[in-house]
Specification:
Blueprint lengths: L1 H28 L5 H14 L7 H10 L8 H12 L5 H11 L3 H27 L4 H13 L2 H6 L3 H17 L3 H14 L1 H14 L1 H28 L3 H13 L20 H5 L6 H25 L4 H18 L14 H10 L3 H16 L1 H11 L9 H11 L1 H19 L8
């Protein structure tokens, strides 16, 4: 076992190293640079210099005063302005980034990529640690693919990398009952940075009762301790930050803008919530939001009732998480970088594989599809293959084909969520599947 674990660690480190080196080359070659990290870095710089980050004019002023440049190509420049200078990051996220924002851009950029890389590798290894007890080969194979294909996440510097990794670490700490204080802090930071990513994971522990509810409440208390000084700081610098943030959300989600889930988005088809699929049939926010909630809410309600009423067991906990993580991607705005939270589905897949029932093949295919759909290389290849795809969306058949071809990630998340929810609901907490 020691040799196996050592070999797995070497493979995981090599896979992570490949991703890091590749992402560095992409970041240096791209005119956008670490576009996502620039949004939080310069937003925090605005606060440090007593300027309102949620006011685009003030953001641009600080950005340019510190040597920031917009891409020369018009389309990229327009995207850059919308993605960076229209601040939609929460005050807690800007507050947590402040120590790095006090450094020069080069130093902060290096440290952010380092922290993101290390946290993802640690999170991946911890999930392998769980999966190796059931199916070590499948576990290390999926983990290595996951780590080797994280280039854009690291190159663009999205905060989802650290938020997802910290959430995974927290889950491992709670369910293994080891380093619990570190787990509480990790989950609290993750909630403070990206609550729409890890909120339902936190809810699972709250619903589970007992010591796990205690862990959830402790994490929430630490989140509040982080949120209070962040709110005070931002409110003093930018008294109108809340309506400004709300306006920025609306502006960037408007038809044709960077966070628009509809077909007209200038950011292509990278929004992966269920609204992105429904918008193909009717590009109207009232319609696609309503339909998405009608589909997702009953699934989440069934999951919540099961989590609250079921006698807790470690294996059932992994199935609960495997069900809710894909559904998390569908309810609200998410991008492929957020799909890295699928790491939490790995233990459930390996448990089913070890049990030997025929359904294990479906679980494996689901996880492979999920991991591949989040990978940068498959997404790039798929985008090239479908860039000339045209379908008459005036017909029902054309709309269905466009949804399947152009929005595959959302449909994969829906299939995974329903599959693992079905397993979770019918599974005996003590004896497993019949």
């Amino acid at each position: 076992m020691k040799i196996t674990r050592l070999l797995a660690l070497v493979l995981i480190l090599l896979s992570g190293g490949i991703s890091v080196l590749w992402s560095i080359s992409i970041e240096r070659a791209s005119p956008l640079g670490m576009v996502d990290f620039k949004a939080v870095y310069y937003g925090s710089r605005c606060l440090i210099q007593h300027s309102d980050p949620y006011n685009q004019d003030e953001f641009v002023r600080i950005f340019q005063a510190e040597g920031g440049k917009f891409p020369s190509e018009p389309v990229r420049s327009h995207f850059f302005r919308r993605a960076v200078t229209v601040c939609i990051n929460l005050p807690t996220c800007l507050f947590l980034i402040a120590p790095l924002a006090m450094l020069a851009w080069g130093q902060a950029q290096f440290l952010w990529m380092f922290f993101t890389s290390v946290s993802l590798i640690v999170a991946a290894y911890l999930m392998w640690d769980i999966g190796a007890d059931y199916a070590p080969v499948i576990s290390v194979g999926l983990i290595c693919f996951f780590l080797a294909d994280n280039e854009s996440l690291l190159a663009f510097g999205n905060a989802a990398g650290i938020a997802v990794a910290l959430c995974v670490v927290a889950v491992w700490c709670f369910l293994k009952d080891r380093y619990v204080p570190a787990g509480i802090l990790c989950l609290a930071i993750s909630l403070a940075m990206k609550p729409h990513n890890t909120g339902l994971v936190w809810l699972f522990f709250l619903l589970s009762g007992g010591v796990y509810r205690k862990r959830a409440l402790q994490s929430f208390a630490v989140t509040l301790l982080l949120a209070i000084p962040a709110m005070i700081w931002v409110s003093r610098v930018a008294p109108h930050w809340l309506p400004e943030l709300h306006s920025n959300f609306i502006a960037t989600s408007a038809r044709g803008d960077v966070n628009d889930p509809g077909p007209a988005s200038i950011n292509g088809t990278t929004v992966i919530d269920l609204q992105a699929v429904v918008s193909v049939f009717r590009d109207n926010p009232r319609f696609y939001n309503l339909v998405s909630y009608i589909v997702c809410c009953p699934l989440l309600l069934l999951w919540a009732v099961r989590a609250h009423r079921t006698q807790f067991s470690l294996e059932n906990a992994w199935f609960a998480l495997a069900a809710v993580v894909p559904l998390t991607m569908l309810v609200t705005y998410h991008r492929p970088c957020d799909v890295r939270l699928l790491l939490l589905t790995l233990p459930a897949c390996t448990i089913l594989w070890a049990e030997g029932y025929a359904i294990r093949w479906i679980a494996l295919l689901m996880n492979i599809a999920g991991f591949v759909s989040a990978g940068d290389i498959p997404l790039t290849v798929y985008a090239i293959l479908t860039r000339n795809y045209h379908e008459n969306i005036a017909t029902i058949r054309g709309q269905f084909m466009a949804a399947v071809v152009l929005r595959p990630i959302s449909l994969i998340m829906l299939a995974m969520g329903i599959f693992y929810l079905w397993i979770y609901v019918r599974r005996d907490p003590q004896r497993g599947l019949p």
